[in-house]
Amino acid sequence: METRIALIGIVVENTDSVRKLNEILHEYGEYIVGRMGIPYAKRNISVISIVMDAPSDIVSALSGKLGMIPYDNIKTVYSKLSSSADE
C-alpha cells in the first residue's frame, strides 16, 4: 500500500481538549513518526506537530477526528513524496 509523509499542525486553545486529543493520537500511534509539543504560556495555547508516514486515507481519518475536537485548530500538509509500504 502506498504511504505518504504528512505533517499535522495542531493549535490547542483549551487544555480541556488535551485528553481527547491524546486518546485519538494513541489510536494512530503505529503511523506516527514523531511528535513535538510546544507550550506557549504567553498566549495560553500549545502548538503540536505530528509527522506521519501513512496511507492518505489514514491521515485523512486522523485529521478528521482531530478536527472535531472543540478548541483545536488543525491543518494537514502532505509531501509529494510517496512510497510503497513493501519497500
Main attributes of the structure:
87 residues, 49% strand, 25% helix, 2 helices, Alpha-Beta Plaits, 4 strands, alpha+beta, four-stranded antiparallel beta sheet, single chain
Structural account:
There is one protein chain. The protein is of the alpha+beta class and 87 residues long. The protein has one domain: 2-Layer Sandwich (Alpha-Beta Plaits). The protein is built from 2 helices and 4 strands; from the N terminus they run βαββαβ. The chain has helices at 18-27, 56-67, and strands spanning 2-12, 32-40, 45-54, 72-84. The chain has a 4-stranded antiparallel beta sheet with strand order 2-3-1-4, with helices on one face. A hairpin with a 4-residue loop joins β2 and β3. The model has no long low-confidence stretch (mean pLDDT 92).
Number of strands: 4
Strand content: over 45%
According to CATH, what is the class?
A: Alpha Beta
Count of helical regions:
2
Fraction of residues in H or I helices = 25-40%
Outline the biggest β-sheet. 4 strands, antiparallel
Q: At the third CATH level, what is the topology name? A: Alpha-Beta Plaits
